[in-house]
Structures are given as C-alpha cells and as structure tokens.
Design brief:
The structure is a homodimer.
Chain A lengths: L9 E5 L2 E2 L6 H16 L7 E4 L1 H9 L6 H18 L12 E7 L9 E5 L5 H9 L2 H18 L5 H15 L9 H19 L7 H15 L3 H9 L8 E7 L10 E6 L11 E6 L4 H4 L6 E2 L3 H4 L1 H18 L3 E8 L2 E9 L4 H13 L5 H7 L2 H5 L5 E2 L1 H6 L4 E2 L1 E4 L2 E7 L2 H9 L4 E5 L7 H6 L2 E4 L7 H9 L2 E4 L4 E4 L4 E4 L2 E4 L3 E5 L4 E4 L4 E2 L2 H6 L9 H16 L3 E5 L3 H9 L5 E5 L7 H12 L3 H26 L3 E5 L12 H14 L3 H17 L11 H6 L1 H20 L5 E6 L5 H19 L7 E6 L2 H5 L1 H7 L2 E4 L1 H9 L7 H9 L1 E4 L2 E4 L11 H18 L4 E4 L7 H10 L3 E4 L4 H14 L2
Parallel strand pairs in A: 15-16, 16-17, 17-18, 25-26, 25-34, 26-27, 27-28, 28-29, 29-30, 30-33, 33-34
Antiparallel strand pairs in A: 1-2, 1-3, 3-6, 4-5, 4-6, 7-8, 7-10, 8-9, 10-11, 12-24, 13-23, 14-18, 15-22, 19-20, 20-21, 22-23, 31-32
C-alpha cells in the first residue's frame, strides 16, 4: 500500500488508490492524509486531490500567489478528477462540483475557510437541475455557493446575504430555509448576484477554474486569519507548518430525505465508553451539523430511518478504529442512501475519555502501554482533578434546564452572553459561564476566558463541544429550552429569566444547568487521595492511577514537590512525589503567631537581642521540620534557607507614613507617634528600590549569620528527633540566590559547623546545595559545583534576571508583547511567543540552564540537578528538563501527577 | 652577569656576586632583586641573602612553619655570610649582626615587619662594646633590638617599652633618646628584659639562630596582618604572591657623627625635576627617616657635613638611574664615612612627576616612547586634572603655617586628628584633612578616606609622603610649627588653635597650610582646555598632551564619551574623544522647562493627546541634537532612545500620598484634593515594585511607539539641519534594554520608516544598534546581530542583572562582602574581591560580554562593539575590553584622557 507520488505538490485520491497515505500528515494535513488512507483501505470516499502544506509556505513567500508550475499541477489533477468522476468542470450537462477545504497537520476545527458546491454557475446549475431533476436543490446549492464564496473569497459581509434570505422568508411567510421553494431560491440567486455586483463592482465569477483558484488562495490566506492565529497560540501550533488544501468532488446530503450528513466518534468522546457515538441530519449539508445551527439526531434514530446506512456506519467505524488503532472522529454524507466518508482523524476527547480509552485499548491489545501513555496528554489528567458539585448542595438547587453533557467537570459563574463580555468579566477576576445560541470559531477567546460554556443549540459534536473538551472547559450543549435574548441581555427558560451577570452552575458530566452559584468539592480522585472515598468505588481513580503507574515505569526524571507544610507534603506523597524539592522556610514565618516574633527579630538593635527572638522562632521551625521529615517517610527534603527581603515581614511603609502624618496633624498621641516614627525609621532602613535585587537570599544569611544558624539548628535538631522514630531523614539544605562560590562556601561552612555541633557522632546524611537563579551562578557553576552537592534551578528568579523582568510588574508589557507582531526574516511573529513565566524560555533561560548544568557537571560529574520554579509543573518545561539531563523536577502537590505523566511521555518520545 | 642559582629557595649576595638578579622580583621580591642587582654592578651593599617568595606560600601551607630542608638551606647561607663578613653569629668577640626585612614583588612600604640588630644578646653586646669602643651605641642597639623583636615576634605591646623609655628620660631629666647615656641604656636593657619575662613568662631569647628563625616566621606572618591586607586590596596586589625575607649583615648609621642614614630619589618625586632629592639623619638608624619621627636634613647640607660621602651619593644615584633606566628610590647608610646601599627600587612618584620623568627620559634617550607610556599609570594622569586653589581666593586667606609639599593638588576639608575619625567623617560625606604628628602604616585607611594629609613631622620621603603620592592624596609633611594635642582634640600653631572638625586647606604644590575652606578651581590642564590659559604657558599641559599623543599612536581601542549636552560633548572632544558613545536622551527631559511637558505627556489619557505634548518635546529635542551633532564635528554620535521608567518624571508617590492625607484631614480644599487624587492614581498605575526590571527601555518604545517616533523624528530633522551647515552627521541610534531580536526589530522598523519619511532622497549615514545589558541579549546575540548594526555593552545594567544586584540597594551587602573572608581551596579570600560596579567582574559579567561578542560577530563579522557603562572609564575594565576585542569604550568626558592612556598601555603590554 506504499504511497505513489505522481508529482511534487499535488496528491490525488480516488477509485481505491491514493498518491499519499495516512502517515503523511505533515505533507497532506490531517484531512488529506485521512482521505488518502481511507481510499487505500477501500472505504467509499469521493475522489479528489490534496495540495500539499508546502504550497502554503511557497504561497506566502511568492507574494501570496501560487507559482505557475504548481497551477499546472493542479490543472492536471482537475483533468484527472474529471476523468475519474466522469464529470466535467463547467460541463453544462454533467458538471463536476467540488468542495475546497483547508486541512493542516494539526486539527484546527472551523478556524479556516471552506467552500462547497464550487463549479456552479448560471450554466451548470441547469445541468444539476436536469441531472437531479430537483431544481429546488440545484438553486439552493447555487445560492449557498454564492453566499459562501462571497464571504470567504470576495469578502462581502455575510450578514447582507443573511438579511436578504430573512427578508425573502418574511415575504414568503416561511420560518425555515427548507420551506423556501424553487422560485424563491432562484430569485434569491439573482438577488445575491446583484449584491456581489454592487459590493465588488464585478459580476460573480462564472468560470469554474477561476472560482477554484480564487478559493484555493482564500483557504491559504485563512491560515493567517485572527482566529487561526489565536488558536495556534492557544495550542502551541507552529505557524510555519501551513495548511494543505483539499479539492474533492461533491456528494450531497441535501438532495432529499434519503440523503443526510453526520459526524461520528467510534467511542464516546466524553466518557470514553466503547460505543458508537454519532449524530446526523437528514437532507442537510455537512456544515449544518458542525456549526450546531440545527440540533442533530442521535445515531440510534437512524436505525429506524435508514437501517441499511446505519449498519454501514457501524461497520465503517469498526474498520476505521481497527485500522487507525485509535478512536476516530469521522464525517460522512449519505447521498441517496449511499454512504460516503469525507474525513477521519483521531477524535478529540475529554481528558477522562482519553485516559479511559487508552486503558481500554491496552486491555483490548489494540495498543501497547507506551502508546497508551503517549495518548494521554498531561492536561487530560488535570480533568480528573477538576472539582465537582457537592451532591448535597446540588440537591438544594432546582434544575433550571438540561442539555447534552459535552465536556466534563462542574462550573459556576456569572452569565456572559457573548465572547467579548466573557473576556471582560474574566479580566475583572470573575468566574464566567459563556451562554450562547451556539458557538462559532470567532468565540474561541471567550471560551478560553470562561470556566464553562452553555449553548442552546448543537450536539455533542458541535463546535462548542469539540473545542470545550479540548480546552478542558466544562460544557453543556443543545439546551434547547434556552432562548437567548441578546437585546435584553438575558436568556429565558420558559418563564424564568436569567440576566447577564447572574450566577448559574453547569454540570458537564450530566448536562444539567442550575440557577445560582453551587459550591464545588474535590474530584473523585482527590476524595480517594484524602480518604473520603474508597479506592474501589471510583472507576475514575482506577483509570487515573493505572495511567500513572504505567507512566512511572517509563519516566527517567524524579518528581518532587514544592511544599512548606506537612499537609501539603503528605498530599504530594500520595500523588507520587518522591521528596520535597523546595520547602520555602519563610512561609513558616508568616503565620499569625510568628510574624510578631519575626518582626521583633528584625527590629532588634543588635545581634544578641536578635538571637533571643531567633531562639523562639527556632522552636517553632523545629516543630515544622519534624512534621515535614515525618511526612517524607524517608524521601529527601530540600530546605531552602530564608530568602525574601526582611521588609516583607514588616508593616507596610506607606501605611506607616500616613499614620504618622495623621498623628502629626492631630497632635493627640505623642507616645504612639514616637513609636511609629521609630518603626518607620527601621522600615526605611530596610526599604529598597528594587527588593527583587536587594538584601535577600544568601545575602541575608551572610550579613546576619545568626539567622542561618538558627535555621540550621532547627533542621538538625528536628532530624535527630525524627530519626529516633526510625524514620530516615535526608535533609538537603539549599542556599538561595548564590552568585559566587564564596557566598556559597560562607554559608556551607556555617551549616557544616552547626551540623557537627548538633549531630556529633550520630549520623545524618545531609547535603548542602544551591539554587541556580542568578545568571552569574550559571557562568561560574563549575566553581560553585566544587563546593555545592546539588543544584536546583530557580527558574522564577532566573527568568526575572535573564530577561530583566520583574514578575510583579511585567504583565503590562508581556501582554502587549504576546499580541504585537513584528516581521523577522519575512515572517510575522509575536514579540514574545509565550509568557516565559509559564513555560521555560528555551533560547534564553534555557541556554543559561544548559550552561549551568554543563559547567556544574564538569567539576562534579554526578551532580544532582533539579528545578523548583513554577516551571517544574509545566509539561513543555518538563520535556526541556528531561532533554537537557536534569535529575528531577519539583512542582506543587497537585501538579505531581501531571509531571509524572509529562516525564514519562518525553522519555517515550526520545526512546 | 647571569644569575647563578646555588639552591632552591635561598639566594646569596655579597662581594660583587649574587645568586639572583634584578629581573627576579617575582622570586626575590623587589628589595631582594635590587640588592642582588646592585651587588652585581659593584655598588657597595652589605652582604646577605634572600629567602624567596615561594617559601612564603610553603610556610602557610605547612601550618605556618618552615620545612626542615629550607631551614637547612638558610643555615648554610648563614655560614656563608659568616665567612663573607668574617664575623660569627653569636661570636662574643666579633659578632655578626643582621637585619631581617620583608620584601614582596610589589612595594608595600611599611606594611610588613622588620627587625634590626638581630644577633645581639648579653654576650655579643660585649663584643660590640669592645669592637666599637662605644658602649653607649652597643647598649642602645641592644635595647632597640629587644624592643623591636618583642613587638614583632613576641607580640608584647610596644607602648610598654615606650613608657619605660619615657620614664627613664624623665628620671634622667633628658628630652631626647640620644641624650641618654651608656648607663641609662644599660639599665633600660635590664628593664626591657624584665618586661619580656613578665609578659611572656620566658627570658628574652639569647640564641642568635633561634632569634633569626623566629624573626623570619614573624615576617612571613606579617604578610597577612590587617594593614598589609588592606594595602593589597587598595592596590589590587594578589595575596598569593607572598613576600620574600632578606637577611642582611648590619651596618650602623648610629655609631657617631660620621655615621648616618638616609633615603634618596634620583629625581624629585613630587615635581619630576631632574635633581637628586635625598634626606638624611646623622647618627641614626634607617627607620628613623622613614617613620618620620625626626625630620631629616636635606641632602644639600651634607655637602658641608660630609662632603666626600655627598659626592659618593650623587655618583651612585647616577649609576643607579642609568643602570635601571628609571628614577630610583634608594636607602643608604653611612658607617664611619663609608657609604652602603641597602635598597634600590623604582621610586614612587606623584602623577605629575611620573609623566614629567617619562617625557624627560624620552628626551634623554634613556627610554623609548613605549616605555614612557607604560611608566605613566592612568591614575597618574588624573592628577593633572585635580583642582587647584583659586589664586585670588587664596590671597584672601592668611597662611597658617608651611610644611614640605609632598603630594600635589589642593584640598580643603574638616580636620580629623586620627585615621578612625577621618573614616567616620568621610562616611558622613564630609571632605576631610587628616592631621597627625606623623602617619604610620596603621593609618592607611584614614589616608584613603581623606582628601589630604598634613603631618607635623617627616620629610618628603616619609611614609605619609610616599603613600600620599601613590594614592594621589594631597599631602603636606613636616609642618613643624604644628603641635597636635590629641587629648584636647585640636592642634596649635603658636597661639592659634584649630579644633578637630574646623576647616583647613592645604596646597600640595607649595606646602602651604591655610585656615578655612578655600574654594578650588580647575587645574591648569583644564584651564587650557577651556581656553582660560594659553597652551604655551603651561608646562603641565605640555607634559600631559605629550604622553597622550604618544598613547594615541599605540592604542587600538577607540575612545568615545558619554555626553548628553553639547557643552560636555565639546569638552570630551577637546580631551580627545572620537565620538559620543552614549547620549542619554532622558536627561534632556529633566530640565525645568521640559519636565512639565514630559509629565503632561505621561499623564495623557490617550495616544492623540500624548502626541500633542510629544510634538512640543520634539522641538526641544531637535535643538539638543543640532547642538550635539554640531559639537561632534563629524564624529559618530550614539543616541540612546528613552530608557528610564516614566514614573521617574512624575511627582514622588509618597509625597502625593501624604499631601492627600493632609488635605483629607484638613478638609479645606476639595478641588486640590480631587486633582491630587487623580494624579496619584496615574502615578500608582505607573508605580512598580522593581522599576529596574519594569516598563523601561525598549519596552516603553514598544508599548508607546509614539515616543520612539518623536525621538527619531527629532534626530533626523536635526541631522538634516546640521548637514546643511556642511558638518557630517553620523547618528547611531541605540535601542535600550533589548532581550529579544523581536523587540529590536520592532523598534528598528520604526526608525527606518521615520528615516525614510524625513530624509527622503537626501543621504544620512545612520546605524541602528542595541545595548547589550540584559543577560538574555548575550545568549541570543547571534540573532540580534542579524538585525542590529552595532552593540554597546551597558555594563551598569548588565552587572545588575548578572548578579541580581540593585545598584541603588546593594551597598549594604557589597560593603560587607568586600570585608568578609571565606576559605576556598585553603585560602582566605573576600566574598567579593572588588566592587563589580567599579571594575568589570570578569568571571561573571565578563563571561557574558565574551558570549555576546562571539555570538554577535558569528552572524555579523565586523560588528562594531563598544561599552558605555561606568566601566568605560576604569583602566582595568578598559584592559579587559581591549583583550576581548571591543572596538571602543565610552566614558565620561573627564575620563577620556585616562581611557586613552589605559587603552595604549594594554595595547603595548600585549605587543
């Protein structure tokens, strides 16, 4: 079944033979590859050809036009298609009509443009009338073509056509498009052509070839429309891969009641259950299902309506799944009871479905465990941790209405009736539920901003459902009782009115909609973790833990957690953490009973006074460490010494100034005034212009060694206590903000001295290491590694210093940078592609990490190196950490499972 | 005359032959090398041997003791010395007495310990009495030896001996040491021995060998005393080079009035005049001259007192200078009219003398121009720029007293009567004049803190004079009318009293002391530059410009200046700048008439309002640029676009808060309150936690492109104006704070667009380049260099980001770091060796500069690269910039000559 390549840029398929094949997604795009593969395995696919993704790049380089030699190739393929279908392009008797569709390597549902029924003109419409003996169909097809072509190619606002359609419906006094008769549609075509002439100054193009090339150009151009760019950014799809264009002979689902069109999944994409999951509309064209404009019927009703076709679909689904070894999402058209497949691809699925399908397919021996792990994205696992509604609370709320459960989870928030409002409310920090008639690709930014999506129309294969599942947004669709009233900014369910801004709650597992703000509780998985649910009674927990068990057998990276208190540490251990990678000791000082002592310590006038307060703090710290060490059950525990600038513990400087001003003016409390002035003086002494770059980290421990001593004493005293309980303790003491080996050594000497004093002849295996979080540390990592026993990349601060971005201040320009484009080497790219605080900036921060790592290991061969910034829980960053050779990543407790899976996946990918 | 090496660690000299030679300073130290070389060229030097500097390192590694095999070598050399002098160590009839002196590669005058008369004990003192027939001399030598040895080796406080001496003088009713007779001194020896027994529990050591090895150990230990460490830090002398120890047979200048001791310079070390400059004391030991305890006589008086010796000295000085081809600083002793040389070395000199001597020696064909340039340190040239007293002002002040001019310049300040007080006053920001009886090496930190030094005792070769000249401190010594009264914290000149804290002024050219604070004016060189003095009438200017003219012929680096206004630019051009390397455009906005408009611009509610204010600013900026371009006379001019965060232009946030609070409490001006609240809101919007890492640099120009546009318009409009005047304009537009090529390109596109619009068909040769000042820019410099036409390292910000040090806040811990030591690889070193804001941190910041440079040139081979941080005027940093291959350095106008010289010197060193 090897692919035969007849030319450079165009790949034909039809009559059970294809130039391309399924594995050529990069060249043919997903759709083109699927069509080629289906053709080869004998599935009934209307013939056509795919213009490869390479042409998209060439198109942009060639001033947005297709070079002559490729035009030639396309023309040759049209001739081939004519002979294959025995129809003629522009042939007034037996006209060839085609669809022109985009299709990139990665699915971008609805983001780019599509044109159907291309080839129709004033002559060929007559041929269709004669051939089908269905003039109503022919005129309807023609008017749809003009409408679509004008919108996509000629950039005539589609609302003008819709208005005309509505006015004709009103005139004819009909409610639905389908109720318009042949004459109405014929005159509509005349009106449409007038609009085109009026708006563009030219007649609607009549030459099919002309139509075709204009359409192909338009599809290529749509690769860079706003929503496609947004979508790519959202899903990290590189812009240089380009889209292919598929030109395919039309089949019609809208020629009568033995025709139809539909979309199916070989398994349930919401739950992952192994059962055919499809929806269809009779007498309709494909876009009607996907767009969610009419709510389609469940495949089960087809057993009654078109029994033969139903079993053909069931059969085809089985063939597809077995052949592609994955759950497939397919599109089909029924023309006069004959089934045609128009697309197949790996089906998008909810996270829970992804994991369940992966588990099931391993059981079915369809895929290996490796493949199963690669099929579950880290983001998929997050859905197992999404909160659900508290069953007791839910009982208190009456159901408002019900729709189709389309994407799992529970969400409540304020109603927003359009995408823009959703974005605005979300920017104000509100939880938002986007409620619309249906969503379209234009709404994608609104969906991204919302916690959940509720639509009145559309099935579980509609845009809202597909995108919702992919984004991990809770989603309920096809809640048909809902009437959205945009003018009055509300929606109604019979006599109940919900205004924009009111709270509603939606349940994406059951499709239920509630008025009000229902509190959420932990997911099943978390409840099992917390001992509030039995492991055995949760199917979800079983799937979750199975995938992770497999993942653990593949991953090379150790996973640790960032935890400051025993409770968090214990959770992380349950989630599979293999130690603490970062305990921020300063968090222990912010507790109410401690901050007072901390303040007194800081305000001490001399070292001996300071030591009195430090002694009090030591007792508390020791208890903290006893708790942490105990919870670690023998895993290592990295403790970072005090890091933040001391003024963070003191009263706010500006507040003090204002208080003093007030006391000065009112002259009523001289004693308090004096006290406040003294306090302000000390606060001013510690005040810094750039605290991020000030007296913090090891600079504190060097200028006030008594703080370091106190902390180290607490650590070792706690270690001795815990070891008495026969629990192994592995403290790894971490010095923050080191830029020079001298700083590190000065601190290490204190640690070693105290350890010797406290531990004496007993044995505690401890390490002393450092954060690598200022650029200089990377440059001199060889020197530092001579003294330091481990490194941990503090990528938060490293990102701040490498970019010279203050995390507290940078949002203003980072947001601008993410949106603003600039032309580099002929390509328009964003100033910043990703927020470097979310995902490691590989070119900059990543280079410094590599430098630090290679220099560090050059002087200490087996130097243990980890990462403990926020990036430790980001899958893309974890991949980078694996690739450069880190030993472990450390992340917040709830990210631990995500990190375990991400680490396994990168190990498998590199296998 | 090749050196013969008889062993590994000890080098003998005597009888016109030496194991070492003058070029072996690294091994023998300066003193040892000088003694060896003088011995070889036939100058009369008492024989002895040098223990090499390598032994110092071995001593410290060997737990502060000398290994047995080296002890053996030393012992063999003692035997050789005995045979050479025909005296015996411990021989009661003909005893050998030796001096034990330190001597490192670099001169560290008085910082380490010395012991004279070693070999004396209760027996040998009798031998000396018999041999010299001068019991008074013998007992005086013995008591001096006990005093010195006890202080240095036995660590008995020297004040106890001094007290005893004073009490005996009182008892005997004599005023001076010399007035004590034989018996008094003999009983003093007994008292001294009792003190030793009392304080150490042991008898004063009698065995000469024991004395010797204890003394050698003490000298090695003194390498790491506090003042030696401070001195090394001050002069960047590495601590690992160690000191040598010179053991030399004693000759005595204190055996009578045909004996004496002195110090000389072959030329005048203050003015550089070619005339013998020496001072001596009859019947005295060497330390008396250097310590400045007795004011010595000028060499001219020796013509009367010891005519023969005087001509021997003149003759020896000529031989030395001719042989060493440099001005020599020598020490001599006269024993019974016989001249012995004890030391020679290149003489320390004032900066003005250094330059004059270098110029003169070229004329005398003693040295080449290369050598002349290498003999003048960049710091030397600074003295030509030191202010002098305004002659008119000076007339208004009566002279208080007169001393010897010892180090040039004019200084006024508050009197401090000891080093500690000088440091404290200086920390408070006061100008200080340190006034003491005499200075000792312990006072070095006080001298460093003072603007000038005035001593009551000592000659122009005293400690204060030598160190003052070297440090470039104004210095007047030997002002004998001054009586310092430490108890009453004042000094008097006859009946006039000057209290500590009062102002005085001292003139280091003329040796005059004035009461009060005399204003200073520009130096001769600067007056010539400013056209206030004729070139021809200033000898100093001629020397200054000659050295620089020679320097220019050797240097490879271009020197530019940092200048924001035409006046500064013009000064820099006169100083030899070859263009502007940094024009900080923001400084133009701080002028009183502009800051208002700037504030209105910032507070604008929208872009169109902002443009109105920007237009006003543009007119002003254009005038500025016209001035700058005109002053550049065809040199390139690098203009940095707006860099600082905008809130720097706005009213102070805290002040506003307090004003509002007051208005709120007083409730008397609602309109003003409202206004202030609105202003504060905008200020708060712009407020940042870490402004250094915030919305500044190109981030401003990208978020508000209209600012960039205004500035670029002003640049090009000005360029066109100036080119009309037939002055070539070469604007180099510099984008600040770039971290990504996208940022740079976005800004460059704006520049190019505006340039095209304004310049049209005219031709302005402009470049667009970038600062490299955040670490990320160095990592991606290859990408940036594809778009950027030049780089300029902004080492101020680069140092801040590489270290994560805020320049505004770091002083607290940097000072601590510079003082705190830590043990690395067995050596005690400071946490920070130098302040990285003063001198480029080569290991860290320097590494990133090298990375940026090599990456930049990898994609643009001839990329022009410069530096415009404060480091551009620091000689050590200039050396580094030359070595890594920069094209230019840019510094403040007054640093331009320093930079020219530093650049020439490094080019010559690398030749």
């Amino acid at each position: 079944m090897g692919a035969k390549k007849n030319n450079n840029f165009v790949y034909f398929f039809g009559n059970k033979k294809a130039d391309g094949k399924g594995s050529m997604k990069e060249v043919l795009g997903g759709k083109g590859a699927g069509l080629a593969e289906m053709t080869e395995i004998g599935i009934n696919v209307p013939p056509g050809f795919t213009i490869s993704t390479a042409v998209c790049g060439i198109f942009y380089e060639n001033k947005k036009s297709i070079p002559a030699e490729i035009i030639d190739e396309i023309t040759k393929n049209i001739i081939k298609l004519e002979s294959s279908t025995k129809k003629g392009f522009g042939d007034s008797k037996n006209p060839l009509l085609v669809s022109v569709r985009s299709g990139a390597m990665f699915s971008m549902p609805g983001m780019m443009d599509t044109i159907l029924n291309l080839g129709l003109n004033d002559k060929t419409v007559q041929g269709i009338i004669k051939k089908t003996n269905n003039p109503r169909f022919a005129w309807d097809s023609y008017r749809r073509f003009i409408q679509m072509f004008s919108d996509v190619v000629l950039k005539v606002n589609k609302d003008i056509f819709e208005d005309k359609l509505e006015s004709i419906k009103k005139k004819k006094n009909v409610k639905h498009d389908v109720d318009l008769d042949e004459n109405a549609l014929k005159s509509l075509v005349q009106e449409y052509k007038k609009i085109v002439k009026n708006k563009t100054g030219k007649n609607f193009p009549q030459n099919p070839s002309d139509q075709l090339f204009k359409a192909i150009n338009a599809v290529f151009l749509s690769w860079n429309n706003q929503r496609a760019i947004f979508y790519r950014k959202q899903y990290d799809i590189p812009s240089e891969i380009g889209t292919a264009v598929n030109v395919q002979s039309m089949v019609f689902g809208n020629m009568g009641d033995d025709c139809g069109t539909g979309v199916g999944f070989t398994r349930d994409p919401l739950s992952g259950e192994k059962e055919l999951f499809a929806e269809y509309l009779l007498n309709a064209q494909g876009e009607d299902v996907v767009a969610g404009i009419r709510t389609p019927k469940n495949i089960k009703t087809m057993q009654r309506e078109l029994r033969k076709v139903h079993s053909q679909i069931e059969n085809t689904a089985k063939i597809l799944e077995k052949h592609f070894r994955d759950m497939q999402d397919f599109e089909f058209t029924i023309e006069n009871e004959k089934l045609y497949l128009l697309q197949t691809r790996s089906g998008k699925r909810s996270g829970i479905a992804a994991a369940k399908i992966a588990c099931d397919m391993v059981k079915e021996t369809l895929i290996s465990k490796d493949e199963a792990v690669l099929r579950v994205e880290p983001e998929h696992l997050e859905q197992f941790l999404f909160p659900i509604f508290n069953p007791d609370d839910k009982k208190k709320f009456e159901i408002l209405t019900k729709g189709l459960a389309a994407s799992p989870g529970a969400a409540s928030g304020k109603v927003a009736l359009d995408a823009q409002t959703a974005v605005e409310l979300s920017k104000k920090g509100e939880r938002v539920i986007l409620v619309t008639k249906e969503t379209s690709p234009d709404d994608i930014h609104g969906m991204a901003a919302a916690a959940g999506v509720l639509t009145a129309r559309g099935g579980r294969t509609s845009h809202a459902a597909v995108v919702g599942r992919q984004m991990g947004k809770v989603c309920v669709v096809g809640a048909e009782e809902i009437k959205v009233n945009i003018k009055e900014r509300n929606f109604t369910v019979f006599d109940k009115i919900v205004n924009e801004g009111d709270y509603i709650s939606i349940d994406g597992f059951e499709g239920k909609v509630f008025p009000g703000d229902i509190p959420v509780v932990a997911s099943e998985v978390i409840q099992v973790m917390q001992g509030n649910m039995k492991e055995i009674s949760s199917e979800r927990y079983k799937i979750f833990s199975t995938i992770l068990k497999w993942a653990d057998s593949f991953r090379k990276l150790n996973i640790r957690t960032n935890a400051d208190v025993p409770a968090d540490a214990a959770t992380a251990i349950k989630f599979g953490a293999e130690g603490i990678g970062l305990c921020r000791t300063e968090h222990m000082f912010f507790a109410e009973d401690r901050i007072k002592i901390m303040q007194e310590m800081i305000l001490s006038k001399n070292s001996s006074e300071r030591i009195v307060h430090l002694d009090k703090l030591k007792k508390m710290q020791k208890e903290d460490f006893i708790g942490l060490f105990t919870s670690m059950e023998g895993f290592p525990c990295t403790i970072r010494l005090l890091d933040p600038p001391l003024h963070e513990f003191l009263p706010n400087r500006e507040d003090l100034m204002l208080e003093i001003k007030e006391l000065q003016i009112k002259e009523d409390n001289a004693i308090l005034l004096k006290e406040k002035i003294e306090l302000l003086e000390r606060v001013e002494e510690l005040h810094e212009f750039n605290p991020m770059l000030g007296l913090r980290g090891c600079r504190l421990g060097i200028t006030m060694p008594e703080i370091t001593k106190m902390q180290v004493q607490a650590i070792f005293e706690a270690a001795i206590e815990v070891e008495k309980k026969k629990i192994k303790v592995l403290p790894e003491i971490m010095i923050p903000l080191v830029g020079m080996v001298t700083e590190f050594k000065y601190q290490k000497d204190i640690v070693d001295e105290i350890a010797k004093k406290i531990v004496g002849k007993k044995k505690i295996n401890y390490l002393v290491g450092t954060m690598i979080e200022v650029p200089r540390a990377a440059a001199v990592a060889d020197k530092i590694a001579k003294e330091a026993e481990f490194f941990s990349f503090g990528t938060n601060d490293l990102t701040q210093t490498v970019f010279a971005y203050s995390r507290d201040d940078a949002a203003k320009f980072i947001n601008k940078y993410l949106e603003t484009k600039v032309n580099i080497d002929g390509k328009d790219i964003e100033i910043l592609e990703k927020d470097p605080f979310t995902s490691i900036d590989r070119d900059g921060v990543g280079e410094f990490m590599k430098l630090g790592l290679s220099k560090g290991r050059s002087s200490r061969k087996n130097l243990k190196i980890g990462i403990c910034g926020e990036h430790g829980g980001d899958p893309s960053s974890i991949e980078f950490c694996h690739n450069i050779g880190l030993n472990y990543v450390s992340c917040s407790p709830f990210r631990v499972p995500i990190a375990r899976l991400a680490a396994a996946r990168v190990a498998l990918k590199n296998k």
